[in-house]
Amino acid sequence: xxxxxxxxxxxxxxxxxxxxxxxxxxxxxxxxxxxxxxxxxxxxxxxxxxxxxxxxxxxxxxxxxxxxxxxxxxxxxxxxxxxxxxxxxxxxxxxxxxxxxxxxxxxxxxxxxxxxxxxxxxxxxxxxxxxxxxxxxxxxxxxxxxxxxxxxxxxxxxxxxxxxxxxxxxxxxxxxxxxxxxxxxxxxxxxxxxxxxxxxxxxxxxxxxxxxxxxxxxxxxxxxxxxxxxxxxxxxxxxxxxxxxxxxxxxxxxxxxxxxxxxxxxxxxxxxxxxxxxxxxxxxxxxxxxxxxxxxxxxxxxxxxxxxxxxxxxxxxxxxxxxxxxxxxxxxxxxxxxxxxxxxxxxxxxxxxxxxxxxxxxxxxxxxxxxxxxxxxxxxxxxxxxxxxxxxxxxxxxxxxxxxxxxxxxxxxxxxxxxxxxxxxxxxxxxxxxxxxxxxxxxxxxxxxxxxxxxxxxxxxxxxxxxxxxxxxxxxxxxxxxxxxxxxxxxxxxxxxxxxxxxxxxxxxxxxxxxxxxxxxxxxxxxxxxxxxxxxxxxxxxxxxxxxxxxxxxxxxxxxxxxxxxxxxxxxxxxxxxxxxxxxxxxxxxxxx
Amino acid sequence: xxxxxxxxxxxxxxxxxxxxxxxxxxxxxxxxxxxxxxxxxxxxxxxxxxxxxxxxxxxxxxxxxxxxxxxxxxxxxxxxxxxxxxxxxxxxxxxxxxxxxxxxxxxxxxxxxxxxxxxxxxxxxxxxxxxxxxxxxxxxxxxxxxxxxxxxxxxxxxxxxxxxxxxxxxxxxxxxxxxxxxxxxxxxxxxxxxxxxxxxxxxxxxxxxxxxxxxxxxxxxxxxxxxxxxxxxxxxxxxxxxxxxxxxxxxxxxxxxxxxxxxxxxxxxxxxxxxxxxxxxxxxxxxxxxxxxxxxxxxxxxxxxxxxxxxxxxxxxxxxxxxxxxxxxxxxxxxxxxxxxxxxxxxxxxxxxxxxxxxxxxxxxxxxxxxxxxxxxxxxxxxxxxxxxxxxxxxxxxxxxxxxxxxxxxxxxxxxxxxxxxxxxxxxxxxxxxxxxxxxxxxxxxxxxxxxxxxxxxxxxxxxxxxxxxxxxxxxxxxxxxxxxxxxxxxxxxxxxxxxxxxxxxxxxxxxxxxxxxxxxxxxxxxxxxxxxxxxxxxxxxxxxxxxxxxxxxxxxxxxxxxxxxxxxxxxxxxxxxxxxxxxxxxxxxxxx
Lengths: 593, 593
Hints:
The structure is a homodimer of 593-residue chains.
Chain A: H1 8-18, H2 35-53, H3 57-63, E1 66-68, E2 71-73, H4 78-87, H5 106-140, H6 143-154, E3 158-163, E4 179-182, E5 188-198, E6 207-215, E7 226-232, E8 234-236, E9 242-245, E10 248-253, E11 264-277, H7 283-319, H8 343-375, H9 378-413, H10 425-435, H11 442-453, H12 460-477, H13 483-509, H14 511-545, H15 551-567, H16 570-579, H17 583-587
Parallel strand pairs in A: 3-6
Antiparallel strand pairs in A: 1-2, 4-5, 5-11, 6-7, 7-11, 8-9, 10-11
Helix pairs in contact in A: 1-2, 1-8, 2-5, 5-6, 5-7, 5-8, 7-8, 7-9, 7-10, 8-9, 8-14, 8-15, 9-10, 9-11, 9-12, 9-14, 11-14, 12-13, 13-14, 13-16, 14-15, 14-16
């Protein structure tokens, strides 16, 4: 059976040391979020994750959700765990203080959310979706709607969903058929079917608040005629209590490869009462608000799964006695050496470690911009928003690709035992697989990066990334201690810049060129960004080690070295792929595939 | 629901065109295996795969095997399908003619076996394991044993297993605890427990013949004291009929990530009657005989799963209407364009195709050496054996890594629908996952390559590969039509040669250097080998296209181009990884992981 211990030491390193210079707790309203407060809350959070949620992860996977006549039953223990989670106030952490929330920074959430995903991804999805829905409602909902729904949602009494996908359209929301009719009293009446609705139906909460994309009467065709509606499972009485059924029903749940304890529902709306959120026909704007924070959230699902897989792979590699070290027995008194003596096993473990710690740090770094976007003003706010916009598709796709790679390496460390369900390792890989797909497939993220984010404001977004990073690398190239690490990063960064120029130029002539390069480009961008954050971590470690030996900082420095030597070199292949262009793939006849 | 059509046209291309110059049917005893015969049999085989085995693949996965009080029940339909398969004579195809087999060449089996694995991997494992056991018995068994067991096994009346792994030892068989005692009448009495025994228990066949590694009395310690025993589930009466229980029992079956319709058993031997196979204490030799053919067999499991995933991804990409081409609508009369218009989707499909067709061709190529090893003599036989020995770990590890990559890309093409069990795509990925682990993990294959195969006979094995391939590339560099394809291959080949020299040199000083490079080196070797076979295919296609347009050959040439542009470039990253050495990973403290 797997184990989980929240990586508190590394989380503190990220928040206190790596990101100290970002001064998150000097932002307005963030004053109380000192490192001490953050530590105390992470410490409490680690207990609920390790002791309450983690023990339900394997059993939840085995049991899955069940559907019977419109009702969904979550696995044993989930209901009780949710009540405990709710009563302890965890759902309120991230919500704004206006409706009973505690307004914790996003930078904190990257760490807290990671713990939730490590310990039980399926469980984590129920509160995470509520949080996403709250964001959209608090930004785009009317005051009346907010007063009616937000306090209950913030408290976790009611939960939320995002209802976008229909059987014939996932990525292409222009094809949505769900429609709204004007109701009698200023409400709308919503009719249609949605699929793949996570947390669409369950009995964890008293009510479920669906945010539904639909076409209102006289809507323009296509994507410009989509509106967002709030449709509760149960109507709300005038006194705010939960009332009658609202013609919302669950038609079935999906049988999936993973995240089996998360209910994935077909939701049918049959003239259900709905409330407009935001501007009529401008639902996509509100949807993107939800989606963008959801995408960052999915990115950290990848980190969480990578972490739990890494921990257990290390434990197994230290315990499994098999064969002898290539250089001669290291533990001659034992029947065999633990497999951690083997370079190939160490290669696997360090790959897992370098990606996982790198992603944790990089996610935290980007989250500081998210906080600045929300809490600062003027140019700082604009710059921060642009940085988040640029990095969102990278965080989503790169982190989830890493999550899947790392969880598969974790299985591989276990050998045949990794394929056995009881040992838990294969569940992490199955759970990780969906993160590359939902909230926009990773291919769509790549198109978002090259098609929307690069050209936006004439490439201005990129400048937030390129200029400071170039400066930083240039400085470190001059420092003897860091030069060997900065040098390969400098080369990779040069390739990223050249690839960017190539795509910008080529895609003006032919948009397919951007499409052909997109996935490799996103990975290259992610690798270089992570290389930057590893260099920054190496700098801190080097400074600390100047004062004397310390295993934590030594491991940090060694992992940075491993990253530069063994993971960053992917950049040469990615660069070659990007530069090979679109011709071969586009000239291939569709009928010849 | 997925579909399957055996890729007969491409299989004919491999057998008749690509491998024609190998003259398989001029080997002694192979005269009848003309292309016509092979086509006819593949044609028949395709029917049984498409119509009998494929329809049981999804249901088999859902139902799985069940265990109750020592008895294993396979999924519905498997028993009937096996009887039909057996009665039609399919198990006899590959066995030697001496015991009722038909003696088909291995080159044929690479195609036939691929079909079996595409259509139903779990089912395919039952006859495949019997085939592996037959190989070992026919080579190492006494005449009496052969007469007693081979005819029934060849006919598929009895099946076979390999019983190697124990709970505390998989890779490290030196730790085996199962032991043999001298029985009263020249037999042995076998006692011990084995785990992960595929097809260990079921009722598809009248008897099950276990080949069991165990320690005989007075055995030397470690790997040099292991013997191989044949232990039938039921004893055999003097008249050859099946007799009493033989103290062999199944203790449980595993719950696994995939290949759920294949029973994976814990087998307990409690003083069971066993017969020595081969020389006492030299069981590893016989075991490697079984294992090597099993490793090639596992390699083609990767190809089979890649093929079925590719076919269904293409179909979906042609049918799924979503969004518009980046260059403007291609099907303005439809609600949206099929997703196959998108470069990123084509990149995915061509990656799947280039790997799958490349592996089919490369597997066929290596199988010709397997046939020469078995049927020729003198130097030709020695050379062929050495080529098979060199390439076996590459076929096993590279093809199964590809199988997992391709089946995951197939899921990705389906988007959210790929994660849903009913659509079948995720099963291929789950089934493919085990192929990277069993019959020696892919890390072990890499160590076999660098640790055993490279140094063997002072690097002589490599010369069978390096010399002819260098000559071929040199020639093609001179041909205007093929130069652009040969040139990147030449560069990659140069890196492979340099990496080989580096490993040979470094590992003399420090064996950990070989271990640190092993996995990347195996991949590099596989990539270059596949590049070579793609260049040969491109040559044939170019010749054929000189006579006029032909979509088949055009697609072949375009896929070769894609391979050189988009997959072969991995060589630069792999080379950099290899050259970075072992220092960072070996100096990392075990306690710091």
